[in-house]
Amino acid sequence: MRANFIFSEVWIGLRRNLTMTIAVIVTVAIGMALLGIGLMVSSQISGMKDYWADKVEVSVFLCKKNDPFPKCKGSGGVDQEEQAALRAQIEGMEQVEKVEFEDAAKAYENFKVQYASNTVLLAAIQVDDMPESFRVKLKDPDTYGAVIESLEGAAGVSNVVNQKKLLENFFGLMEKIRGFALVIAGFLVIAATLLIGNTVRLSAYNRRRETGIMRLVGASNLYIQLPFVMEGVIAGLIGGVMAAVLLIVTKVFLFDGMQGYLGNSQLTWETVASVISFTMAIGVFICVLASFVTLRRYLRV
Amino acid sequence: MIHFDNVTKVYANQNRPALDHVSVDVDKGEFVFLVGPSGSGKSTFLRLVLKEERPNSGAIHVAGKDLARLSNFKVPHLRRRIGCVFQDFRLLPNKNVYENVAFALEVIGKPRRFIRKVVPEVVELVGLEGKAHRMPDELSGGEQQRVAMARAFVNRPMILLADEPTGNIDPATSIGIMKVLDRINRTGTTVVMATHDAAIVDSMRKRVVELEDGKIVRDQSRGVYGQAY
């Protein structure tokens, strides 16, 4: 097998079908990038679910003086007795693992950390504006229903916020993004397959003279077909490299950008590398498969 | 070398067989003319030898191999032992004489050193010395056919099949082509040539097999083209 013969044939084939080759490369690149983004979102979701699983808590906010919340209207804020009664009630529940009291000063500290960049907001909010709360950690985060129900009506409680519910909304959105990316990737894979088929068919037609002679002088089927398949492989590889660049850009600007809001990004470079190699393998595999199937139809050997 | 035993070939969508119970033997080193009108089955005969088509019945042996039992995988190896020349030359227009001949060796994976040694020899054998770097469109029809013969012979095949090699060439030039075929035959290569050219058949005095409507109507050693044409 003479490698430089094959490669010169491949080069000629790619150049003759330049527009089709570009179409294949772009389609493969976008399709594989979307597939990769879907996979990255997937791994981000599962990573975040693990990360948050032992951190989600139910926040029970207490009424303060002149609290605008409807349940607190008129009351002068929660007093010591009510607070102690609430604590006892929460600790008495069997679903509860542990309760912590967060006073206004601590809440203000947390607030300052979270909104460090927003100076206007920091200047407007004072320690007294922060609500006091009980942070309730449940043994099983899924059993929040009964806890919330019984605490919401209790005296001195302004409202109850379940972090799990908030996270679930967020995860729902992420899952929608993932599904959308994967569906579009699926369509693009089909488009890429058909485009490659067409490219190979054009190539086979352009080179029917050469392949006819090759057949006649007894070139093996592999030798005749390899340049066509290599054309597909090279187009697929270039598309894969472009997809890899897109994925790296997405990781740096989108996933790492989210880090500020979500505590930490669960997407490591290791994951990105395995996603890239997976999508590249898929891209090349599609190209090889489409080339072979088309060749069987259009290149009699 | 070529052995047809009661071979029948009917193309799909056709009632009349292209070859009808044909039995013929061609020995090693023989020179055989295959004559007959268009549609008499000459080209079908050649295509069957190359296993480009399969017979509907009967057995074909080529170079000691039973073609019915030869797997598709091995067909290229059969074709390496058979050279082919056609009426329309089938040269690659973007390659020069040397490259056209070398192409046949490159695609079967011969080493470059071997190609550099063998190709000039064969180019000389067909009488094209000094023209190795001409492009096909700079050559006359006769010269182009010589290139095609060099390509067919460069791998030293056991059999050379020629399908009307002089069909596009004037009679004077055809004599030169026949001389090359004769030279190739003298190296021990079996030559089977399908032709319409009565003058050539008559002048060569070789074995003549005449086909008509897919049947062999004459098989004569040292024959002539025949009265009917």
TrEMBL record, chain A:
According to its UniProt entry, the protein's GO biological process terms are:
cell division
User: What is the topology of this protein in the membrane according to its UniProt annotation?
Assistant: Multi-pass membrane protein
User: Cellular component GO terms, alphabetically?
Assistant: plasma membrane
- The answer to whether the entry has keyword Membrane is yes
Tell me which residues make up the FtsX extracellular domain: 56-160
Q: Where in the cell is it found?
A: Cell membrane
What UniProt keywords are attached to this protein's entry? Cell cycle, Cell division, Cell membrane, Membrane, Transmembrane, Transmembrane helix
The source's superkingdom equals Bacteria
Indicate the quaternary assembly. Answer: Forms a membrane-associated complex with FtsE.
Role description: Part of the ABC transporter FtsEX involved in cellular division.
Q: Indicate what this protein is called per its UniProt record.
A: Cell division protein FtsX
| Source species | Planomonospora venezuelensis
Automatic annotation (TrEMBL), chain B:
Q: Where mainly found?
A: membrane
What SUPFAM superfamilies does this protein map onto? P-loop containing nucleoside triphosphate hydrolases
Q: Which residues form the ABC transporter domain?
A: 2-228
State one Pfam family annotation: ABC_tran
Q: What GO terms fall under cellular component here?
A: plasma membrane
Which InterPro entries does the UniProt entry name for this protein? AAA+_ATPase, ABC_transporter-like_ATP-bd, ABC_transporter-like_CS, ABC_transpr_LolD-like, Cell_div_FtsE, P-loop_NTPase
The topology of this chain with respect to the membrane is: Peripheral membrane protein
The organism's superkingdom is given as Bacteria
Q: What does this protein do?
A: Part of the ABC transporter FtsEX involved in cellular division. Has ATPase activity.
Q: How does it assemble?
A: Homodimer. Forms a membrane-associated complex with FtsX.
Task: Give the UniProt family note.
Answer: Belongs to the ABC transporter superfamily.
Q: What is this protein called?
A: Cell division ATP-binding protein FtsE
Q: Source species, please?
A: Planomonospora venezuelensis
Q: Which gene encodes it?
A: ftsE
